[in-house]
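Postdoc handover notes: sequence design on the structure in folder B. Input tokens:
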């Protein structure tokens, strides 16, 4: 792999180990749930046939493969991610799908210098974990040709992602962030770009122009049933992160926390599973022409 910025080393460890394992375990909920938001973003600002695109923080490469369909055989897509197991899975699945206009690179976007050859950059929830977001966004901007387009999906505020907020509030009644933990943390975290002023300023300082934020509200499946939704809420997101960092030191209180979360999100359960309101920003920007 090209080098990892020292301040992203711990995040890299988290995404290469425990968070990768959780994303595999809950893949239908994570990538499936985010799928609708990603599709709206890509659908309203798609790459054009024949273009060269980059997928930032590509994870399993689901969106990289989707971009490959959109740019077609005359175009090509590079998926970049800092986590080796995500990249290995992405390469394998793209190979199995028989795609020959896709490649993947294991790299920290914050430390990556790419040739200025891309027409379009995309990210679905892959840009909130950089220790230095401006440096990473500057690298994305530098890889885009003049007039190149960038589209990304990031979480909006927790207040409008109620299932996350309710679980976190309950966990925080019992636990702070532990001062000592052997578990790696995931950096600034999934909600680090929720503030419209902050993220638009980051994009501006990174050299982007015509910055736009479109609010996207779509329900997200957070469990096939209430049992899975509680398990999911206690495994990922801010509540899951606190519990993961405490590990087995808090096993005694887990059943009580689980019961409280279950009661708090029961209203999201319907005949087809547990669907909670989810709210994201679709970010759009251009490089100067
Ligand atoms: C929430 S996941 C989203 C994955 C994928 N885009 C999707 O929608 O399924 C965040 C991804 O960002 C990647 N990531 C985090 N920090 C990164 C960095 N500094 N450089 C490149 N990728 C990074 C993680 O490894 C992870 O795959």
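Designed sequence:
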């Amino acid at each position: 792999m090209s080098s990892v910025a020292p301040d992203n080393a711990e995040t890299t460890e988290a995404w290469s180990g425990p968070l990768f394992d959780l994303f595999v375990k809950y893949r239908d909920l994570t990538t499936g749930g985010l799928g609708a938001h990603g599709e709206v973003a890509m659908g309203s600002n798609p790459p054009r046939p024949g273009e060269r695109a980059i997928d930032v923080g590509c994870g399993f490469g689901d969106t990289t493969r989707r971009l490959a369909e959109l740019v077609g055989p005359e175009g090509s897509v590079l998926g970049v991610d800092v986590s080796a197991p995500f990249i290995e899975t992405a390469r394998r699945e793209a190979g199995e799908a028989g795609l020959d206009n896709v490649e993947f690179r294991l790299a920290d976007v914050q430390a990556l210098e790419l040739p200025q050859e891309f027409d379009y950059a995309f990210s679905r929830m892959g840009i909130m974990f950089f220790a230095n977001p401006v440096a990473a966004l500057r690298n994305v901007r530098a890889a885009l040709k003049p007039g190149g387009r960038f589209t990304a999906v990031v979480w909006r505020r927790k207040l409008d992602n109620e299932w996350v907020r309710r679980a976190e509030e309950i966990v925080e009644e019992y636990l702070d962030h532990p001062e000592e933990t052997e578990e790696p943390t995931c950096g600034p975290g999934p909600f680090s770009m929720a503030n419209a002023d902050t993220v638009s300023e980051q994009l501006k300082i990174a050299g982007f122009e015509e910055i736009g934020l479109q609010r996207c509200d779509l329900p997200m499946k957070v469990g096939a049933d209430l049992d899975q939704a509680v398990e999911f809420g206690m495994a990922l997101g801010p509540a899951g992160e606190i519990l993961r960092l405490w590990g087995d030191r808090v096993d005694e209180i887990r059943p009580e926390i689980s019961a409280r979360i279950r009661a708090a999100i029961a209203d999201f359960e319907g005949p087809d599973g547990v669907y909670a309101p989810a709210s994201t920003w679709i970010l759009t920007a251009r490089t100067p022409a």
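Context for whoever picks this up: The two ends are 32 Å apart (CA to CA). Don't rerun without checking with the PI first.
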